[in-house]
């Protein structure tokens, strides 16, 4: 056995995510269903999705802006929506650091698009945005792989 | 409107080289661009592909969430955890 096999490392992001997510799935399964069955299906899907995102963000912890943004958003749903609309309008009005314009020159505004897609991306400088994006992509890939493994395991 | 300002070397916190390096790191993560084996991908294209790729991953998470919500009753967390962590060799 290779002791450095990352998949057996209990502290790896993948392991933490798997553990947390599976526990969340059990909890969701044990919840009392709502009165109407049609609502139940949608609610379960929503809860699973939120559990997946939250489990990954919590596996990463607070060391990344994107994971903090997700955790904060989930904990403060209503307040988050008000803040985001305020933050986006003030961000557009303030004078940008000329170095940040690199994102605009380069991408014709696709850096703006990236900012909307990466959690917490609105307030980052361009360099940080790129670094966070790379980490976010790696974690999303892990999330998808584990979710797919679970689904395949129980699909037969 | 952004006017082209002369780039300050040395004192600037964000250098062109840093940005180029970060963009190429992103490029390595994108399967589509990686497989084209072309060095001449513009940063703009990388950003665009990145957005598309992330959106694709979000969609996969959505689809898998739906699948899992249907399988919920059959999932046994403890044996699943052991099986998955054992089998994921990355």
Automatic annotation (TrEMBL), chain A:
Record-level GO BP terms: regulation of DNA-templated transcription
Domain of life from the UniProt record: Eukaryota
UniProt keywords, alphabetically: Nucleus, Transcription, Transcription regulation
InterPro entries xref list: bHLH_AtIBH1-like, IBH1-like, IBH1_N
GO CC terms in record: nucleus
Protein location: Nucleus
All copies of domain IBH1-like N-terminal, residue ranges: 11-77
Keyword Nucleus found: yes
Transcription regulation in keyword set: yes
PANTHER family: TRANSCRIPTION FACTOR IBH1, TRANSCRIPTION FACTOR IBH1-LIKE 1
Name of this protein: IBH1-like N-terminal domain-containing protein
Annotated organism of origin: Liquidambar formosana (Formosan gum)
TrEMBL record, chain B:
PROSITE patterns for the chain: BHLH
Domain of life according to the entry: Eukaryota
Name recorded for this polypeptide: BHLH domain-containing protein
One of the GO biological process terms: regulation of DNA-templated transcription
PANTHER family from the UniProt entry: TRANSCRIPTION FACTOR PRE, TRANSCRIPTION FACTOR PRE5
Lineage of producing organism: Eukaryota, Viridiplantae, Streptophyta, Embryophyta, Tracheophyta
Keyword Endoplasmic reticulum in record: no
Keywords, sorted A to Z: Coiled coil, Growth regulation, Nucleus, Transcription, Transcription regulation
Stretches of the chain forming a coiled coil according to its record: 54-81
Subcellular localization, as worded in the UniProt entry: Nucleus
Domain BHLH: 3-57
GO terms of molecular function: protein dimerization activity
InterPro entries listed in its UniProt record: bHLH_dom (IPR011598), HLH_DNA-bd_sf (IPR036638), PRE (IPR044293)
Recorded GO CC terms: nucleus
Species this chain originates from: Liquidambar formosana (Formosan gum)
Predominant location: nucleus
């Amino acid at each position: 056995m290779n002791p450095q096999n990352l998949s057996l490392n209990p502290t790896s992001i993948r392991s933490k995510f798997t553990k947390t997510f599976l526990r969340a799935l059990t909890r969701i399964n044990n919840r009392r269903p709502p009165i109407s069955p049609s609502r139940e299906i949608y609610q379960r899907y929503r809860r699973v999705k939120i559990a997946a995102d939250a489990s990954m963000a919590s596996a990463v912890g607070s060391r990344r802006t994107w994971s903090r943004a997700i955790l904060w958003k989930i904990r403060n749903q209503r307040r988050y929506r008000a803040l985001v609309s305020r933050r986006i309008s003030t961000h557009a009005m303030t004078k940008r650091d000329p170095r940040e314009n690199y994102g605009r020159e380069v991408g014709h505004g696709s850096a703006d698009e990236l900012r909307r897609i990466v959690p917490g991306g609105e307030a980052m400088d361009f360099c940080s945005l790129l670094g966070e994006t790379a980490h976010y992509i790696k974690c999303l890939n892990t999330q998808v792989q584990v979710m797919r493994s679970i689904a395949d395991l129980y699909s037969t | 409107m952004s006017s082209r300002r002369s780039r300050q070397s040395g004192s600037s916190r964000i250098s062109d080289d840093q940005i180029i390096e970060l963009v190429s790191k992103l490029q390595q993560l994108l399967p589509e661009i990686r497989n084209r084996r072309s060095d001449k991908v513009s940063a703009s294209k990388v950003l665009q592909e990145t957005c598309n790729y992330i959106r694709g991953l979000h969609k996969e998470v959505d689809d898998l969430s739906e699948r899992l919500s249907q399988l919920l009753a059959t999932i046994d967390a403890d044996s699943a955890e052991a099986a998955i962590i054992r089998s994921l060799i990355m």
